[in-house]
Design the sequence.
């Protein structure tokens, strides 16, 4: 395979000029650029992109660390990153971890070895302290509030949002409220925030009123069955951790002859298309905007902390 020296010799230019053409440097005379490109075409030269990136010290690629690539919550965040990255001519690489800490650290090492220019972490398995150690190698933006030096964040005030959701239900007269979460509170800041919000609003322990590991319509049906049948409770409202989970609760309720919202109220989350179809009241965290903001912070190369406002969207399920 031909190398840069051979191209330079045949084009009658310096190796530096060939390098500048390869890297789209603006200060190359048009006739020289044309000669180099013609020789490259004749020799069927394909540049070694890894070597070029190493020489430039950048890849024009940002990595997004997320647990799953098939979940509506993370879809919205990723779509925001993709839209913003496209406008700046950046590539986006997804790094799914399944919440495995070692897998996540492998992706952090890719920042250290300059395989990506920076990382956006939609949800993490490792501690923020460990993640912040890698910020010396490039920009890292996390999706939660943090005061750690070196880390930027585009985040939602989860505690405030969850309290608003629970207060909304309480103000409408609902007292026997149950709710669903994703990961267990021992490892999920989001779940811890939601449980604390419940306790602050209803002034009782949250443990008996919640169920973890809920992500899908089927999980919503399972959650409703768990509270109504296994625990023998009589909830008058549910606060689901996603509109798909809320849809599952609605399916169960209708199968059992319950009317929504007369017999059971349902509050969803994230304003997904299924929620619009089912006319679910939902609390939108504006996740796409969070993804766009995270990329903007990464691209600025500044340490910034930006909070994304949430929005309660009232429809017919409450």
Sequence:
């Amino acid at each position: 395979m031909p190398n840069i020296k051979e191209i330079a010799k045949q084009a009658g230019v310096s190796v530096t000029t060939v390098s500048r053409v390869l890297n789209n440097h603006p200060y190359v005379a048009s006739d020289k650029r044309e000669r180099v490109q013609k020789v490259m075409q004749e020799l069927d030269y394909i540049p070694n992109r890894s070597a070029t990136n190493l020489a430039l010290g950048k890849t024009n690629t940002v990595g997004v660390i997320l647990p799953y690539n098939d979940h509506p919550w993370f879809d919205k965040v990723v779509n925001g990153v993709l839209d913003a990255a496209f406008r700046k001519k950046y590539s986006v690489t997804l790094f799914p971890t399944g919440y495995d800490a070692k897998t996540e650290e492998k992706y952090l090492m890719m920042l250290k070895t300059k395989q990506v220019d920076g990382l956006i972490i939609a949800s993490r398995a490792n501690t923020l302290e460990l993640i912040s150690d890698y910020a010396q190698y490039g920009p890292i933006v996390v999706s939660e509030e943090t005061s750690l030096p070196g880390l930027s964040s585009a985040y939602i005030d989860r505690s405030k949002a969850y309290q608003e959701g629970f207060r909304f239900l309480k103000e409408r007269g609902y007292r026997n409220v149950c709710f669903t979460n994703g990961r267990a509170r021992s490892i999920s800041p989001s779940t811890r925030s939601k449980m604390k919000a419940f306790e602050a609003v209803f002034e009782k322990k949250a443990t008996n009123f919640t169920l973890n590991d809920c992500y899908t319509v089927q999980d919503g049906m399972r959650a409703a069955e768990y509270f109504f049948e296994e625990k023998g409770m009589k909830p008058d409202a549910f606060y689901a951790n996603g509109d798909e989970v809320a849809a599952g609760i609605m399916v169960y309720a209708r199968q059992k002859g319950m009317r929504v919202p007369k017999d059971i109220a349902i509050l969803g989350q994230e304003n997904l298309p299924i929620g619009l179809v089912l006319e679910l009241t939902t609390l939108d965290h504006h996740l796409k905007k969070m993804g766009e903001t995270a990329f903007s912070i990464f691209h600025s190369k500044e340490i910034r902390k930006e909070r994304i406002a949430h929005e309660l969207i009232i429809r017919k399920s409450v």
Q: What stands out?
A: The chain has a mean pLDDT of 91. The chain has 13 helices and twelve strands. The radius of gyration is 25 Å.
